[in-house]
Amino acid sequence: MKISYNWLKRYLNTEIAPVELEKILTSIGLEVEAMEEVEDIPGGLAGVVVGEVIECSKHPDADKLSLTRVNTGSGELLSIVCGAPNVAAGQKVLVATVGTTLTFTGGESVKIKRSKIRGVESMGMICAEDELGIGTSHEGIMVLPQESIIGTSAKDYLKLESDTIFEIGLTPNRIDAASHIGVARDLYAYLKYNCHDVTFNIPSVGDFDSLERGSSLKSAQVVLEAPDGAPRYYGLTFEDVKVGQSPEWLQKALRSVGLRPINNVVDITNYILQEVGQPLHAFDYNMIEGRKVVVRRAKQGEHFTTLDGVKREMSADDLMICDAVKPMCLAGVFGGEKSGVTGSTTAVFLESAYFNPVSIRKSSKRHSLKTDASFRYERGANPEIIPYAMMRAASMLQELTGAKIVGEVIKAYPNPIERAKISLNFERMEDLIGKRIGGDEILKILVCLDYEIVSSSSEGAEISVPGYRVDVTRECDVVEDVLRIYGYNNIELPQRMSASLAPGIKPDPERVRELSANLLVNNGFYEMMNNSLTKGDYYTKLKSFPAENLVKIMNPLSSDLNSMRQTLILNALEVVSYNINRQHTELKLFEFGNVYSMCEPDANSLGSYKEFPKLLLVVTGQGYPYWRGKQGAGSYFMLKGYMEALLKRFGVELYDMDYSAAPADIFNEGLVYSVKGGKTLAMMGTLSNSLLKQFDVKQPVFAAEISWDVFISQVKKQRVQYRELPKFPEVKRDLALLLDEKISFADIRKSAYSVEKKLLKDVVLFDVYRGDKIPDGKKQYAVSFTLQDLEKTLTDKYVEDIMNKLLSKFGECFGATLR
C-alpha cells in the first residue's frame, strides 16, 4: 500500500522528516518496505534560476544565433549563446547554469557544460518550456513576467513539489490503516503519547442541508433484500453532473499512490477510498432501470458482465447490486459494464455501504477478482464511516462537477452494529507486556488511540473499541496496541533467563540437513524454496502420483494454487523453465520440502492425510563455458554421482539396497533405490519428455528425489568411523569378466566380499562393454579390486591366490569367464 508524505501532512501538522517518519511507522506496526522520493520534474530543476537578459546582439558568424549577457543574481553577467528567435534584452527568463542536468519533455537528459558555439563561449542555456520538462512548446524561450525576481530558483518560481512515497506492508489485521487518515491517526497516537506538538485534523464536511438541491429528477429507491450481506447501505442521487477532467491537485494526489485519473466522478470516489479507506461506487443514474436499486443475492447461474468485459456466471452466494431488471455490480468487488460513469453521464447514484467481509472474500476468490474495494471490504470496513464518506463525496461532487443532490440520503441500517466492549485487567495485561508500566499509562495510550474509557479502577477498566478497529476483540489485542505505542524497544530484557535442556536425538535431523545442504552448495548447487501449493492439473496424467490422492484446498486463492504437491519435481520444473526463459540454462538446484497425499480418498478424517519430507536434486545444462571449452555438462551420471556422494557422506551403504526401474511417467530412464524392508529411499533419472514438454523445457533435465525420513533412518544405522592412514600400500587388480546381461554389479560385489572379507577394501566397476565380439545376451564388466593388509605388505603370490579364488567364485555363481 502506497502512502504519500505530502498527502499525509494534510491531516497531521508535523515537520518530521520522511526518514524519521519511516522509522516511526515501522516501530508502530506499519512496516515500511520501501521509500521513494518523487518530484514533479526529475531533478527538481536544480541549477535553473530566474535571470534577466541585459544585452542581446546577433552572432557574427550565425544568422540564427544571438549573443546575450544575462544577470542571474550571482554578481557576474553570464555570456550565453541563444538560438531562440524571440530572445531580447530586458526579458526575464529561466537560465540553466553550468552543471545543471535538464530532462526534456521527450525524456532526453542533457547536462549543461561550458562550451564554444561558433567560436563564442557560452556559459549556460536560456530555456524553452520543453527543455525544462514543463510543457511542449519549443517555438522560443520561456519569457517571464517583469516582476519576477532575479536569482529565484526555478523550483520556487514554478512551485514545483517533491514528495516521498512510503510502501507499507500492511498486515491483514490492520485494515484500519489502509488509508492516509488511518496512517495519520496511528502516527498521531504515537506522537501525542511521546509529547510531540502535533494536531490531527480530519476534513470537515458540514451537513446535507448546506448542499445545493435539484428537483428535476426523482431520487432512486433502495430495496435491501439481503441485510445479512449489506448490514448498512446508504445511497444518494445527484443531478446536473458535469463529467470531465479532475483538477490538477486531485490528479496529482491519485498519481502519487499509483492510480490513473479517469474522470472527476470516479476520481472523487478513488480519492476518498485512499483518504478514509471507505470504498464508494458511482452508478450512472440513467442506466438504472425502474430507478430502483436492489441489494440481493444472485440467482444461481445468473450471468453478469463486469467492467473488464468478462461475462461471469454468478453463484447464489454472491451479493449483487441490481436495478429492477438486471445486475449492475458485484457488491464490494467489481462494477458492471453498463452501469458505470462515462463522459455522457449527467446524473449519478452514489453508494456508500458496509458489506459482510466473509461474503466479499468468498466472491472475490470465487471469481478471481482483486480490487482496492474488495481488499478493504473482505478484511472488515468501518461501518461508522459510511455517513462521513457519503457527505465528503457529496461536497466534492458539488464542488468539482456542479452536482446537485436529489431528495434525501437513503439509509438502510436495520440492525445497528454495536462497538465491541472489552474488560481489561491491568495486572494480566502487564504480564503479557513483560513490564509493569501502570494502569494510568495503559489508559493514556488507549485514549491516544481513540478508545473510549467506559469505566476504570486501579485493577482494570471497561473500554469501547473504535468502529474502525475491527481486529480488536480481546484483551490480548489491546495489549498489542499498547505495546505498539509504548514501544517494543522500551521493554527491557530480564537479567536472568531460565531454561531446561533436554538431550537431543542422534543423529540430529536438523544437523544432517545442514551438513547435506553445505555439501551440495560446496558442489555448486543453489537452494530453491517452492510453494507447497500447486496446480492440481499437473497430476491428471501421472500414474505415480494419481490425481485422486491430491490434498485439495477448499478455498483456493487461484486455480494455480488449488492443491498440495505430491512431489517436489513438478515445482522444480517451474523453476527450471523460469530460469531457462531468462537465459540461465546451466542449473544445479536442490530443495528440502514436504509433499502431501491423501491415502484414503474417501475418508474425511485427518488420519487420511499424510505428509512426507523430501530432498530433491536437479541438474540440467550443457556445461559452463570457460576459456578452454565447456565444463560440467549435466548428465544422468553426474546427478547419480552427486546423490551417491551425499549418501556415502553419511555412511549409507549403497550395495545393500535393491534397485528397480524408475516409473516411466516421470523418467525416461532411471533407478529406484529401496532399503531392506521395501521402503523407497530415492528415485532418480532423466525426466520424461512428456513432463518437459508440459513445462516448455527443451533441454534434458535430471532429477533425484530422496525420502528424507528413510534417509535419516539409514543414517541412524551407520556409524562413520575415522582412523589413521595405513602404513602399508594397497594393491589393485583388474578383471575383465564376460557375464550374462541379467547379472548386476551388485551381485559381483556381494560375491567378492563373501570370498575375502579381511583384505578386500573396495570393488569398483569402471567399464561396461557390449558390441563387437561380445555374444548376444552377454556383456563385459571391467572391475577393479583393491586389496590391503594393515599389518604387512602383500606379496604378488598372495594377491594372485585371492584373485584366482574370486574368478573361480564368479564362474561358479554367475558363469563368468575371463576375457
Percentage of residues in helical conformation: 25-40%
Order of strands side by side in the largest beta sheet?
A: 28-32-33-39-38-37-36
Cα shape: extended
Provide the low-confidence segments as ranges: none
Sheet/helix structural class: alpha+beta
Total number of strands: 43
As a percent range, the share of strand residues is: 25-35%
Counting DSSP H or I runs of 4 or more residues, the number of helices is: 20
* Sheet with the most strands, sense and barrel status: 7 strands, mixed
Rounded to the nearest angstrom, the radius of gyration is: 39 Å
Mean pLDDT: 90
For the record, give the distance between the C-alpha atoms at the N and C termini, rounded to a whole number.
76 Å
